[in-house]
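Raw record, unedited: FAD-binding domain-containing protein
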Amino acid sequence: MPIFLHGPDPSVYDTSDRKPHVIIIGAGLAGLTLAALLHKADIPFDIFEKSAETRNVGSAVFLGPNVGPLFTQLGIMDEYLAKSKLCATIRLFNEHREQDFALDFSLNNELGGFDGRILPRKVLYEIILGQVPDERIHRGKRMSWMTQGENGVHVKFTDGSESEGDILVGADGAYSAVRKCLYDRLQKDHKLPASDAQDLPFSCVCVAGYTDALDIEKFPFLKDPESSVINTRSFDKPYSWNVFAVNDNKMCWNSTLYLDEESSKFHNNFRTTDWGEGGAEGMCNDIRNFPINGGDGTLTLGDLIDKTPKDQMAKVMLEEKVFDTWHHCRTVLIGDACHKLHPAGGQGATSAFQDAVALANWINALPTTQVKDLEKAFKSYRDERHAAALVATAHAKNMCKFYGKVRFVLVIASHL
């Protein structure tokens, strides 16, 4: 995907104080949240999403107190509270369905002003989506290349359509087309750090789902107005798994496979052919007999898998990387496009929200749409968020070990 300077005369500068037109590639949580904030600030924008239809699978999302001010400002707090459950504990079980210990964070409200809550990712997405005018979202638009320069940014899509604006935001996920296009140019100009040119590393594979309504007599804990993160760690298998009670008598679930050197090679061979809905079935067969807590003491993941529509489960790689290069010229990255976090840390959605808030603030404060002002704003955004992304990554790595892999290694070591 080539990138060239755009504009008939780069020496002609726009010195007006008009608001910039923002092109957002990707209608995930990061892109939609940025769009909602720009809409509140009366900053013109358009979102381009490669998928023709909204397809938002995944498990549950835990959100802590730090999203409270954002949701209040967006006017979605009441809907968020109505569609989520209070969640103040992580409970860790072994394969005998015995609780080993629990982590309590019931002081969230007292210390941070808002409670921690949990809800399906699909529901969270729909809440944010409702804040963005339909006419500003253009679906079935896969970016093929872009050009940028002093006079603006020009984006072309695979269907032959084009768009022009002042700012290009890459909110298109871990395998961002915007990032690839930007990095290709920077690499040719010898301006890309070597670490940014390396592939996204991954050490885990996950299958996740969101059930239909369940029988509350079989799953009596669904009656409880509060939820918990219920994690089970294996004694002798490189797996851990989680279940979460959510509203409407439904549950979210996931299971993580921790890879070694050989299994990493195997899964990498199927990197582009064995993922998404189609790849989930095989892994579900491997995990369906894993025990879960509750009910009559015989429940397994299979009881949830059998009640999960196929279009509400997916197999995904859990990549982990924080990129160094977040912006250049008129282009800037947010969310998974610049930092991909392991979900064990529970920081992916929150980090995306915080990116969107920071970037929206800097865009709103722009004195002009000239590149020199954009680059100052983007640098300030990156300075504000990069260190936080590194902290979130370290936390996610620690929680990943805490949930599963360390237990697996320690149990083996104890038998040597």
